[in-house]
Each structure stands twice: as C-alpha cells, then as structure tokens.
Amino acid sequence: MIFENMKNDIIKYRREKNTSAISFLSTLISDIELIGINSKKEITDRDSIDVIKKYIKNINECLYYSQTDELKNQLKILENYLPKQLTETELETIITTIIVENKNPNIGMIMKTLSSKYTGLFDGKIASGIASYHLKKLSFSGEKNTEECK
Q1: Other beta carbons within 10 Å of 122
Q2: How confident is the model at residue 146 (pLDDT cuts 50, 70, 90)?
Q3: Best CA proximity match to 21, nearest among 80, 83, 70
Q4: End-to-end CA distance of the chain
Q5: Is 80 left (phi over 0), alpha (psi -120 to 50) or beta?
C-alpha cells in the first residue's frame, strides 16, 4: 500500500535527518489522512495516487516559474510512489481490445472501462487521444475489425 510505504519512508528520512523530506512527506501524509477522516473509510491506493498527482501538478506549475532543487527533490519523492504508467503502445493495445470487444464503443465507455481496470496507470489525455483516433478509423471503415483499429 502506497500510504504505508510513505509512513515507512518518513522513518527512513528521520534516521537520515533529512528535514526537508520529513516536512514534505508529513504534509503529504496529513493530506491523505484527511481524505480517510472525511470519508470515514480506510485510505486506498487510489486516494493516495489522487493526492500525489495533485501535488505533482502543483509542483510542476511552480517549477515553471522557479527551478529550485527543493521542488525537484519533492517531485522525485512523489514519483517514487506512483505505479508504473502504461506506455502508449500498451494503452493502444488495451483500447483496441476494448473497441473490438464491445458492440457500440464510444469514448465515454472506453474511458470508463480504462478507469475501472487501470486506475492511476495511464494519462487520461493520451488515452482519450488514442481512443478518439481509433474510433474515427472505425467509423470510416464501417466495420469493427481488430486490424482496422491498429
């Protein structure tokens, strides 16, 4: 579990006396714990991933204006907790399979299927672009054929 790994890492940073990492990770852990408190449920990896992605987005925006070592280090810490992302090739294979396995595929259905099976493992913009491309190819061909989707 990602959240448990963070708790273990903060102990490691305390041993190393890495005050910057301790402070940053403490804030991250608190934000994730708050989700569990507010929802009155156990914290899931999905909860952790959502908070981590928000942090990454904010740090990337800050990096646009100021290239500091502290921000870069925070980004490295966060990236360690994210699961390995699907490559574009892997996404394309999955999306074409979803298209072929469904009678009337559409972008919403494809994205919903991806989200339910591959939560946090793909970039939504990339997946949407790939799905749109293959759906357009499919509509021009008039047939649902695996070869047409590739």
Answers
A1: 22
A2: very low
A3: 70
A4: 36
A5: alpha
Length of the chain (residues):
150
Q: Which residues have CB under 8 Å from 114's CB, separation 6+?
A: 91, 94, 95, 98, 122, 127
Q: How many CB atoms lie within 10 A of CB 30?
A: 9
Q: Of 138, 114, 87, whose CA–CA distance to 146 is shortest?
A: 138
42-57 tens-digit pLDDT: 999 889 999 999 999 9
Tell me how far apart the alpha carbons of residues 53 and 51 are, in angstroms, rounded to a whole number.
5
**Residue 75 has which token pair?**
């980004």
Express each pLDDT in 52-78 by its tens digit: 999 999 999 999 999 999 999 999 999
What is the reported pTM?
0.69
CB 46 within 8 A of CB 83: no
CB 111 within 8 A of CB 127: yes
Helix (H, G, I), strand (E, B) or coil at 48: helix
Beta carbons within 10 angstroms of residue 52's beta carbon: 23
